[in-house]
Amino acid sequence: MAFDLRFTKGHGTGNDFVLFSDPEGETELTPTRIAAVCDRHFGVGADGIIRAVRSDRLPDGAAALAEDPAATWFMDYWNADGSPSEMCGNGIRVFTRYLVDQGLVELGPDEWIAIGTRAGVRRVRALGNGGFEADLGTWRLDGGEPLVRAKNLPVARPGLGIDVGNPHVVVALADDSELDGLDLAYLPILEPQPQAGANVEFVVPAEPLVEGGRGRIRMRVHERGSGETLSCGTGAVASALAVRHWAGSGAPDEWVVQVAGGVVGVRMAAEADGEHVLLAGPAELVFDGVLSLA
Ligand SMILES: N[C@@H](CCC[C@H](N)C(=O)O)C(=O)O
């Protein structure tokens, strides 16, 4: 059966997405279709698909509405291989820009919008510099410290498991040459392997490590379900949290994370329900199109 899709292509620091609007949740999204759309040779090409659907049309959306009735739109996020994810930090900024661009929501300066996700409700606001900031909520060390093997890494290294709505394992490397030498076309191997899989981030300090009170790191990532990407927002957040954890007391609560596709900002802020972590960065919509797949 033919599958026609009217879409918008967008990205946040090079982490790219095919976005489309399906308010009533009528489009049948199968892993095969998603992988075909995201295919960089035979489809549009993207790290993931994001569907804008009314929250009351999906079971996960109903849960989001129960948490916050203002979360009327749901970010239905899927990785390039057709697997779902709970959260996407770059995606939620691009999704918010898409909702505004499509006239589906109005967003005043500094006004927060509530978005439904599989990880729960998340809030996003537009920044004066054209970018967006997403409050990714509370986070937790998930207790795991798996050993991580990656191609061109001579010995296995310990990772730190962090959950920021989706699962991450962060690995500290020695220096830029070790980071640049990794071949992330190959899947890093985790021992033990987390049941739900994990996004794996490799980090090194940037030079200087702290500037103007903000910590600075470089990161590369192998995303669950998408492979190596130019950026991962939740990965940047997990990396900053991991490096702050390793640095101990006195480490900054604001971080600049350099990724292959640009720079994002991370800050930690105390809230009534625990410490929240927030992610700021660009959100670009680059073209619209119609895709017809046989
Ligand atoms: N690129 C995203 C994360 C997308 C989901 C991830 N691959 C997963 O499976 O959890 C981001 O910017 O956070």
Largest sheet: 19 strands, mixed
Q: Identify every distinct bound molecule in the structure, by name, code or SMILES.
A: the ligand N[C@@H](CCC[C@H](N)C(=O)O)C(=O)O
Query: How far is it from the N-terminal to the C-terminal residue, by CA?
Result: 6 Å
Look at the structure and give the CATH class of the largest domain: Alpha Beta
The dominant shape is: globular
CATH superfamily membership of the largest domain, which one? Diaminopimelate Epimerase, Chain A, domain 1
Q: Note the quaternary state here.
A: single chain
N-to-C SSE string, H for helix and E for strand: EEHEHEHEEEEEEEHEEEEHEEEE
The number of domains is 2
Number of strands: 19
Q: Roughly how many Å is the radius of gyration?
A: 18 Å
Secondary structure: helix percent: 10-25%
- Structural class call reads alpha+beta
As residue ranges, the low-confidence spans are none
Question: How many helix segments?
Answer: 5
CATH architecture of the largest domain: Roll
Mean pLDDT: 97
Q: Which fold name is given in CATH as the topology of the largest domain? A: Diaminopimelate Epimerase, Chain A, domain 1
Strand content: 35-45%
